[in-house]
Model the fold of this input.
Amino acid sequence: MAGLAPNARSRRIEESATLAISAQAARLRAAGKDVVSLGAGEPDFWTPGPIAEAGIRAIEQGNTRYTPAPGTPELRAAGANWLQRTFGLRYTADEVMVCAGAKAALHIALDTIVEPGDSVLILAPYWVSYPALVAMADGKPVVLPAVPDAGFIHTAAAIDAAAKQSRARGILLNFPNNPSGVVPTRAQLQAIVDVAVANDLWIVSDEIYSMLLYDDAEHFSPAALPGGHERTIVVNGFTKSHTLTGWRTSFLAGPRAIVDAACRIQSQVLGNPCTISQAATLAACEIPLPDEQTRRMLAFDERRRYLLREINTIPGMHLSVPTGAFYALVDVRELCKARGIDDVTVCQQLLHQHLLAVVPGSAFAVPGFVRLSYAVAMEQLQKAIARLRDYAEGR
Ligand SMILES: Cc1ncc(COP(=O)(O)O)c(C=O)c1O
Done:
């Protein structure tokens, strides 16, 4: 026997590009370099006290054993309530499953609906994991190229044509979008839902950034729009808004038959989401923290405005206004053209020559762009801008 080898499916799965950049930055930092890393999408704020304390209490009270596979009944009910209160979504507790982070919820959602070989539409720019998640469910990712010059919003006609051409069975949506920060209007989202209805597509809607909005942006879930509820699986949670990044919880909500199927899959794979983290997430659902939310949003907004001011004065770079999430997708097409290089080279040069870690747009199917996360302290952003400027001005 030649020894164990990974199978063909796992060989097709690449390491997440954003995690790879963060790992490179961490290695340089471990070697004593003063690296500024804008690679990771993780808020620099702590998990709020009352939520962390609920987790600590769970441990102290011995609330550390298995729960039902779909989560505790209290948390499923609280999740349904939170989705209704915050986004106007109508689900019973049975139509909500607690999962271990949005990533796992997306994986399980796709596992419940994709038949082998099904085409699934993905709108570029997309979060790095989507093609891999579709492929792991034995589906075929069909990527619609990014439309940077149309504000990254695909027209209904373009989505409709792609759905027909690929005979798509479903579409993955992510608004507010990582990496573009785009938040569609209600009318724009309704147009996409209408295409889904016309082509009988299911929708998996990744709404993990839905509480991070700026200016007058408003979040709508496709499940709250006419025609959307019965064909949509919603994935949401507190990962990004409340820094529950390491706690690994999320909600998956949708039609009862889909959620039942998701619960069966989860019972075989995960058993149940972490019991301690479920206690913390229950607190996140039940304890409003308006002051904490305001403090965070003011800080993110200040950084967003700073980046908009500064980047648009750097030669060869341009930033359009992001109105959601905490990412700036910087257009470096002009700089790439002038230097005869691509965005991957830009990122490698920034990292190795200027100790600045950012992610190439190519990782999100938007070449000619680089993504900066502004979920970092202002002084880190100021350093980052100085390094970007040095790079662009050839210093
Ligand atoms: C669009 C999007 N979906 C899902 C996730 C994963 O979230 P979680 O940490 O809850 O698994 C991320 C994290 O970066 C993301 O950007």
